[in-house]
Amino acid sequence: MATTNTKPKMPKTGYVEGAGFAGFRHNIKIDFRRNKVLYFLSIPIIVWYIIFHYIPMVGIVMAFQKFSPALGFFESPWIGFTNFVRFFTGPYFGRLLRNTTMIGVLDVIFGFPAPIIFALLLNEIKVTKYKKFVQTVSYMPYFISMVVVCGLIVDFTQSGGLISHLVSSLTGKAPENLLANPRYYWAIHIISNIWQGMGYGSIIYIAALASVDQEPYEAAAIDGANRWQRTIHITIPSLVPTIMIMLILRMGSLLQVGADKILLLYTPATYETADVISTYIYRSGLQNYDYGFATAVGLFNSVIGTLFLVVTNAISRKYTESSLF
Amino acid sequence: MVEKKSISGIIFDVLNYLFMALIAFICVVPIIHVIWASVSDPASVDKATSFILWPLGKPSFNAYRIILKYKNIWTGYKNTLFYVVAQCLLTSVLTVIAGYITSRKRFRYRNVLMMFLAFTMLFNGGMIPTYMVVNYLGLLDTRAALLIPQAMSVFYIIIMRTAISGIPDSLEESARIDGAGEFTVMFRIILPLCKATFAVIILFIAVGKWNEWFPALLYLPQSKDKYPLQMFMREILISAQNSTSSVTQSAAEYMDNAQMYKTLVKYGAIVVSTLPILLIYPFCQKYFVTGVMIGSVKG
């Protein structure tokens, strides 16, 4: 509804469309008059978001500075891409990239299907009470704090620990401290993630399964399809939209391997496989006070992360019906 | 639908029931182990080579006697309770307001505002710039540092907004005709109608806060007195074994061979810090289910 007039007429009340900046000023005035309280209420929210989200985005300029907290975001000396060059040519770049990618990818490969398979198997249980019981119990690990989960891992995998015993009785080797051996870190990380997240992650699939239309099953049964065939041809297709959405969400954060769990589990002895970008940011920024450098590493990580999200979303939009934006 | 079961179907069912039982067992066994070990005979626990499914030796509560005198845990408990309550109040009020504003159809720029908020999900400044902002605001080593930087989350706002959008506009209009102001509409008309969603958000905040430790590591570098429980748990369970040693050493005054209880004190601390959540969550299940549903539908 673009107006052709060069000087659009501003009605006393009501909004104008397509009148450029003058129109916007006019509209916001009217909108403000109508929703004064809403405008005032949104001030603290906008201010909070500016302070805690948008100013840190501006603070990314630190990545191009030899940052010193006393000088601040704009007074610190500018050094161009030095921090990035240092990171890319530094001794840890390859290791960090490999660990972050591998932990992220393995976590999706093993951690993503686990709740789906669990939900499908649980769906085959017809005794409601038993089903509910298993379900409730399976959520439990999700509610245990990361610190306690990691404390349990440390305790169970030490050389006298229960899991170390179990592993040694399977392999026939003497029990060792599994967490101190870099070769086992990825396995420990991913298995414990599955233990903690599988039950909770299955909620969405169980709900989707509960809402599947029963009619096709009856028709298929009459046509002589067995349970396996019904699962393959009816149940799984009806889960695909949910699976796709969850997969995009998961892929989007593939390379955002969080620091908190690894900070609790790793030791200098296992940096070789356990050190990821986020833990490296923590160490170089908050332990070595190399703020500019740590910000540069962080920027690299979030640019890659955002790219990943956008690309996955585009791929998904092209090949399936589901996309996030 | 009654149907004749094939042999393979029956075998599958039996195996499936057993497998589900195994999964359930794996999910709870570490906690069962911790609970029973914490009241067992310490020497047998240290020698155990498999999970403890019932108390070994004569049950005793000596580990808990040591924990009772361990001041840090109770400081942490007090702090965590404060953080949980304060964060729930702060975040839930702000979330309701933000959800209300961004769902008002008469507010012309509601979608602009929502985009402004949602953009932060896509891209953020990262750990260090955020830390610097908290530093410049003078929040480091204050209790506010654990509350204000986490005051809002787009995720909760979207959940709240979706719930509020489902309420017909006519309710607000008729309240307005009766002379209700913005706050009356928000807290007297709208909020009671999305109680379930509100409960979900409170639960998410409370559980998240109870289990949170990383912000404390970042923002409370020098204030142990303000540490939440999980930070002390980290000391006990992870940082160094000597942390429990110092506890048991101080317990030597009132207990013989207190040193033996090192492992049991760890387990006891886990029970003390985790039990509240484990007792509550089965009753809140249905709320969590709704929360996950709304959250994922909206991405």
Give a brief rundown of this model.
Chain A is mainly alpha-helical and 325 residues long. Chain A is built from 16 helices and no strands.
What does this structure look like?
- The complex is a heterodimer of chains A (325) and B (299).
- With 325 residues, chain A is mostly helical.
- Chain A has 2 domains: 35-80, no CATH class; 91-319, MetI-like fold (Orthogonal Bundle), CATH 1.10.3720.10.
- In chain A, 69% of the residues lie in helices and 0% in strands.
- Chain A has helices at 20-34, 36-58, 72-75, 82-89, 93-111, 113-123, 128-139, 146-157, 162-171, 185-210, 215-222, 227-252, 259-265, 271-274, 277-287, 291-319.
- In chain A, α8 runs parallel beside α13 (259-265), α10 crosses α12 and α15 (277-287) packs antiparallel against α16 (291-319).
- Helix content of chain B is 71%, strand content 0%.
- Chain B has 14 helices and no strands.
- The longest helix of chain B is centred in the C-terminal third of the chain and has 36 residues, at 262-297.
- The mean pLDDT of chain B is 88.
- Classes of the chains: A mainly alpha (325), B mainly alpha (299).
- Chains A and B meet through α1, α2, α6, α7 and α8 of A and α1, α4, α5, α6 and α10 of B.
User: Which bin fits the share of residues in helices of chain B?
Assistant: over 70%
Distance between the termini of chain B: 37 Å
**Multimeric state:** heterodimer
Q: What fraction of the residues of chain B are assigned to beta strands by DSSP?
A: under 5%
CATH topology of the largest domain in chain B: MetI-like fold
Estimate what percentage of residues of chain A fall within beta strands: under 5%
Structural class of chain A: mainly alpha
Number of helices, counting only DSSP H or I runs of 4 residues or more of chain B: 14
Low-confidence stretches of chain B: none
User: What's the total number of strands of chain A?
Assistant: 0
**Biggest interchain interface, per-side counts:** A-B, 94 and 91 residues
CATH-defined superfamily of the largest domain in chain A? MetI-like
Shape of chain B: globular
Q: In the CATH hierarchy, what is the superfamily of the largest domain in chain B?
A: MetI-like
Return Rg of chain A in Å: 27 Å
**Distinct helical segment count of chain A:** 16
The biggest beta sheet of chain A reads: none
Query: Which value, in Å, is the CA radius of gyration of chain B?
Result: 25 Å
Average per-residue pLDDT of chain A, rounded, comes to: 89
